[in-house]
Amino acid sequence: MTETRSEGGQSNGPTARRIVLGSQLRRLREACEISRADAGYHIRGSESKISRMELGRVGFKERDVADLLTLYGVHDEVERTQFLAMVKQSNEPGWWHRYSDLMPPWFNDYVGLEESAARIQTYELQFVPGLLQTEEYARMLAGHGRPELAKEETERRVALRMNRQKVLQRMDAPKLWAVIDESMLHRPIGGPRVLREQIDHLLEMTRLPNITLQVMPYPLSGYAAEGSFTMLRFTEPELPDLVYIEHLGGALFLDRVEEIERYSRVVDRLTVDAETPSRSRQLLSKRREEI
To answer: Which residues are 230's β-sheet partners?
Structure first.
C-alpha cells in the first residue's frame, strides 16, 4: 500500500536527521535480533512507537535513545555521544516553524523535505513553481487574485514562499529541474505587469548553474503526466527518493520503488517532449515581448 510519509531529506535539516537516526536505530535493533515489541517495552512504550521512531515520524527523547543504545549493546561513549547529539539536532525546529500556524501538517512536512533535498524535479501545469515565483506573483496566488483584500496572513504566506526560495541560493543548493506548461506563460496572473516581471525572473533564475527550466509546448502538453508533481532526491542511502503530489484536500508522498521508477520514466519523457533549455529561454523572451 502506498505510504504517506511525514519526514525525509538530506542530513542538513531536522527532518532528515530524524530519518537518518531512526534508520540507524533500526539497523542496530535488527543486528541484535530484538523485536520492535521488546524494544518498545524496554523504553516503556509500544511496538508502534518504535516503528514511528525508526521511520523518523516523531521526535526523539534523549532518554529513550540512551536506553535503546544500552539495549542494543552500544556502550562506547564516543558513539553514544554522537547518537545523542543527533537527537538534539533532530529536535531543533526548522526556520519554517514560525509559519506552522499557516501550514497544514502535510505541507509542513514538504517544506522540511524540500529544504533537505539534493535534487528537485518538478512538473507544473497551471502556475509557476513556488521556488521560482516573484513576490507579486506569489501575492496574487496567496490572495486569490484579490490583493486589495490582502491580510496579514496573506503577507506571511508570501514571506514563507520567499524564504523557501533561499534554498536555491545556498552554497550547497539543490539542483532544480522544472518543466512548466506553455499555458502558464499566457495566464495573466496579476495582469500584464506581474506576468512580465515573472517571466523576467524566470530568465534571470535560469542563468544560475543549478537551475534548469524547460517549457512544455501546447501540442505535447498532458501526454507524459496527467497532473503536476515534484520528485525529491536525496544523497543519503537511508533516505528514499520521494514523489510529492498535492491535491485539494492534502498531499501524497510516494516512496515505493515501483512508484519512483514510474515517475522517473515520466521525468525522462518530459525531458524529451519539452523544449530544450535554450529554446525555452527563447520562448520566454518572445512571450515577454508580446505582453
So the answer is: 122, 244
8 falls within a domain: no
DSSP classification of residue 148: G
179 within 8 A of 216, measured Cβ to Cβ: yes
Q: Name the residue range of residue 217's domain.
A: 95-290
Torsion sign (Cα): 112, 15, 233, 262? negative
Could you tell me if 179 and 120 are in contact, meaning their C-beta atoms sit under 8 angstroms apart? Answer: no
In this structure, the answer to whether residues 122 and 252 fall within a common structural domain is yes
* Number of independent structural domains in the chain: 2
Query: What are the pLDDT tens digits along the chain (291 aa)?
Result: 233 333 333 445 667 778 888 889 999 999 999 999 999 999 999 999 999 898 887 889 999 999 999 999 999 999 999 999 989 888 887 777 788 788 777 787 788 788 889 999 999 999 999 999 999 999 999 887 776 666 888 899 999 999 999 999 999 999 999 999 999 999 999 999 999 999 999 999 999 999 999 999 999 988 888 899 999 999 877 778 889 998 877 888 888 899 999 999 999 999 999 999 999 999 999 999 999
Which three three-digit cell numbers place residue 161? 514562499
Question: CA-CA distance, 213 to 178, in Å (whole number)?
Answer: 5
Which phi and psi angles does 119 have, rounded to 5°?
-140, 135
- Looking at residue 72, which CATH number applies to its domain? 1.10.260.40
Contacts of 169 (CB under 8 A, 6+ apart): none
List the end-to-end C-alpha distance of the chain, in Å, as a whole number: 47
